[in-house]
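Appendix B, Record 12. Input sequence as logged:
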Amino acid sequence: MSTKPNVLVVIADSLRAESVSASAVGTRRETTPFLSAFTTEATTYTQARSHSNWTLPSHASLFTGSSAVATRFDIDTQLAPHQTIFEELAADGYQTSLFTDNPFLIDHQTGLDTTFNTAVGSPETFDVKYATNGTLGDWPNGFWYADQLLSWSADQTTPWAACLNLMDTHRPYEPQTEYDIWSDERIRQIQSEMGFKWHWEFLSGNVSVGFAKLLETIYDGAIRQVDAIFERLIETLRDRGTLDNTLIIITSDHGEAFGAETALSTEPPAVSHRIGTHELLYHVPLFVRMPRTATNISASTPSNGGTVISDLAELAGIPRLIRATVAGNNTTDTDPRRAVCAKDGVTTATQLPIPAGMQREATRICETATPYTKRADIVYSQRSDGTILKQARWGEDAYETLITGQFEREDTGQIALSTVLDAVPSDDETAGISINSINEYDEFAEQYSNEFAEELEDQLEALGYR
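Logged structural output:
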């Protein structure tokens, strides 16, 4: 029987760190009671960053272990084979699988699902107990995908590695009633009328951006639901006796925002995700539970659980963590948990300009797409005093922020654009990852209607929110 540990990577899509109530992460609502308890047996990283503010480049960086991939990977590109950690594990005898209903990860031309032995997407039919609590989604909630993963893993006779991407925390937010404890029927009605992708209504000024905060109440309920899914996964593995032989990684691919003001007057407010440099879009939760097998860190190691690491961490470090854990590295000089910390204390993030489909939607709703078509680059640097220096650019403008605590920030003003550009990964630095162009691809940019938007302000007033 193999002693190699299983690997489980759980990615709650659009889950920002600031809304996770687990120990050392903090929020005003108790969104994650299970994770709060789970931190006693896991390592919590309080300064983890994603490498982009949306799904595709963030996952590509996480899968390949290269933060620089985000500077090139987009909706019209594809990774060449044999470059991801899951392909590496498959070559080492692991059975690998992906579980998600994220359309950018399943059956999209970028091919990230092909890096797994199997991939499970949305079913044509499913038990009503998995239904979402709303009218916008015709797919099951995250419990269905978690149960599919648990069923699949129970059938494996060799080490397995699975990635679960949960869309419960991605718009539209439709948590089940028992978790939707901060919103009300009026707020749910607003979201239902606004459709899948409501950010343009706020960015255009058609609707006051202040009303975006209303949707945050449903979002927090979705986080509470995801926390319950985490619990089902962990406790089922524990009951089976396989938890202690499994590396558990819980994180997000990017954050979410509800109208947060940005540091530059030329940058739009942070609404949802996909556009901009705001910290809410890049600061993500990260929890790691190491296996307790003989070849890895033992259960008696004091730092195995309840440890908080406040150094700058990056999602591109996850493959390094997996390699070190699978290899059984456990010396006084090599702590696998440190593998996710940014190399040399520096990491980067990039958002390439939005594609043609999104530009058409921006033009249709906002009259012009120009304010939203800029590129974003961010450089994070850990300083000797423990603070983190953030230098970011939005188009031709750049600024600097000092991150002095978990969520405390001091904007220190604009800086020269060259300061950021000189630190962004060059083509030479991304040359180690082969990325190919594709000619035909799905954008999913126009799959909603905004007929309600013209009357939304009146609707909000009628519902008691004016």
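The chain has twelve helices and 18 strands.
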